[in-house]
Amino acid sequence: MKNCQILSGFFNFLKITNSLCKKMSSPAPKSPEQSVKSKKYDRQLRLWGDHGQKNLENAKICLINATALGTEILKSLVLPGIGLFTIVDGEKICEEDIGSNFFLEVDTLGSSRAQIATQCLLELNPDVRGDYIDETPEHVMSHTQDFFNNFTVVIATALSEKTLIPLSKLLWEANIPLIVCRSIGFLGYIRLQVKEHTVIESHPDSENPDLRLGQPWDALKEHLDQIDVPNLDKKTRSHTPALVILYYFLKKYREEHNGLLPKTRLEKLEIKKMIEESIPSDEHGLNLLEENYKEAIHYVNTAVTPLKIPSNIQEILEDESCVNLTQNSNPFWIMCAALRELVQTDGALPLRGSLPDMASDTNSYVALQQIYQKQAQVHAEIVYRRADQIARNLGLGQDAIIENDVKLFCKHAAELHVMRTSCIADEYEKTNVDLSSYLEDSDSLMFYYIMFRGLERFISEFNAYPGQFDDQVEPDVLKLKGILSKLLNEWGCSHALRDERVHEVCRYGGAELHSVSAVLGGCAAHEVIKLITHQYKPLNNTFICDVISSNTATFCL
């Protein structure tokens, strides 16, 4: 009875406390409502932003052959919301398809593979549109030469060499990216072909902050000079941004060294020592090392650097496409030409305009941030005006250069990347292939590249996979060995492939394992998204996956 009274009293206390809290506290402000799209695509928007998502939603993707690998690639593109896809596939669904592709049900046996795959994929995302053509890629290429010109990216799976070569040439001339993929047994292959691909946001793993304390512009210098760091009271000093502290000691260092910036490790250690010696002590003689002083010491290595144009950016600014513009030049190169003029004038890239997080009170940090942002806007405006003028001089429309694009371009000017791969048709038709450096290691995955090349030639010659029919496994081993030997002789390679590798590929009989295709499909879709969004660096240009050894490798061929 006593326990019941205690519990009853406790619950009454909770009710009274809760009631008082409701009366005393005002409701927390509601965060702004997310749009339906933001909720749906929240994770990926953090990776490539609204502008990247817009590019994705405007993309038109063509898939040649709805194999297990092909449908896995499209699945990983439909889910994030590509605009439209078209499947080109003249095959009917057979038992092998149902066994290797979980998108295809038993009751679809004999139906159009392109049609059923399209229907299943469209169920994944109502925002995406899809279509199919129940014809072979050979038929489409021969009857409608410009069919592929309407697509952003073309993905091809399970193509023979005789079909791949003309497709490669066609898309190379049209400058449409082509991704060729194949999955067989425990092996996978991806080859990217793109005549020219430009990247503005390459998202480097590490990036030094663009602070320019050694070359402050007037507004920054005026702001920093008015803060007398040694005479700040304890509270103000503890909330002063690290950049202000670092600037003060950098200025002091330069006064003692004829205005020179520290360059060597020892010279930078001298500044660090100056900062450490300025840290006040408590009554016991121990240094009161506050967070902002720790940060100031940390930023000595990255913030105090001379202005220098990275070599890879200098190469882009000196590229033929940047120097000799035409009416066909894309906006990237026009912006590069305008950037080139700014660099020639100022000797530096546009200011990034962003500050790293640092210990500080809000007002001090925001004041510093606004100074950086305003200067970044000044640089972006200079580049925009010049790019717009260049576009007009080329006879392009007034909307050829978009101001927001220039702002993004200037913010990421240190990340620019241009990639030009080789043409697959050239790779397949040339005979002077030097693979010797890759083949020194007997475990190199380059041997599987040779195997895939032999496999494609086998399919072209015999219209079947090696080992596809049970009674032909051993004869096909001999045929595949002959094709591989011929390939190696054409390339002038003396290395021989292990017999067990040839037997293993023939044992697969052209079969796809959906789990392997799922992994490879995710990798290929990732590369497609890079191409569409013009963010992150795509692979250059060949990717091999060996699931048995859990190894992958990339090769530039």
TrEMBL record:
Pathway assigned in UniProt: Protein modification; protein neddylation
Coiled-coil blocks: none
One GO MF term attached to the UniProt entry: NEDD8 activating enzyme activity
GO CC entries: cytoplasm
Pfam families associated with the record: ThiF
GO BP of this protein: protein neddylation
Record keyword Cytoplasm present: no
The protein's name in its UniProt record: NEDD8-activating enzyme E1 regulatory subunit
Organism: Brassicogethes aeneus (Rape pollen beetle)
Lineage, opening ranks: Eukaryota, Metazoa, Ecdysozoa, Arthropoda, Hexapoda
